[in-house]
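Throughout our pipeline, every protein is held as a single compact record rather than as scattered files. Such a record has a labelled line for the sequence and another for the backbone structure tokens. This encoding replaces a full spatial description with a residue-level series of whole-number codes. For reference, a complete record is included directly beneath this paragraph.
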Amino acid sequence: MSRKPFGDSPGPGVPVEASGRRPMTRRQFLKRGAAAVFGAGLLAGGYAWKGEPNRLEITRRELPLKELPSSFAGTKLVHFSDVHLGFNKDTRDLARLVKHIREEQPDLICFTGDIVDSYAEDLTDSVSILAELEAPLGKYAILGNHDYKNTELLTSLLAKSGFTVLRNQSYLIKQGGAVIAVAGLEDLLHGKPDPVAALKGVPDGCCTLLLMHEPDYADTAEGYPFHLQLSGHSHGGQIRLPFIGAPFTPYGSHKYIEGLYYTENKAMPVYVNRGFGETSLPLRFLCRPELTVLTLRRE
């Protein structure tokens, strides 16, 4: 008596692979492909929501400035931006950022706007955390476009945390018989930036660092005696795609989006920090939050 082999046997007319398995049908292929795409989407979505926004990247680089006095050579400048407290970031997130900044032992700290996402009151519980930051050459801040709902309260809270808030103003820093200036402008979208007012009292030829929230303003700023612009605002696009980059950036950051640039006419360096927080969507993809550490050198 003949016996059938164990397992399924193909019906008549159904081809069998050399391994003895049936070939995958088109319908099976499409179903499995759809499941793979759906699974990858879930993984990418989870990473963009819960993963990447919490993966701070610390960018360290040396930056030569030919106007920098020799007594300031080697100055470690820490630059952060766009915290957006009250949206996808809270006091615990800010405490984590402050810890990283303190570990860098900065000489100079610069913040380039959007400390809150909407309401100045969202900064209240974080004043003591920001007050933990120390820098022998000072802590300086400007306002971003999200900071204009109650500028008086917000400016007061930043001042209580030890920051000098520059609104079309400058501050002179003296060291070793030399001086540099830190200037800060009002926001381009909700304020009235006035570089002439900001430079009032700055000596001719003085190396001047400019804090300006919107990076594209650099093409205007290079017409004035500024020697470095630090900006935020763009978030680096917040969502970046392979081979494409950022499909969307806000007005004021279409040209300068992330990292170091030099303006076309005077080659003024512009550094755009990708920001610490998020806005509009609590997501980041291929665009990690950033803390920038610049060591200033004489060119």
In short: The CA atoms of residues 91 and 248 lie 28 Å apart. The radius of gyration is 26 Å.
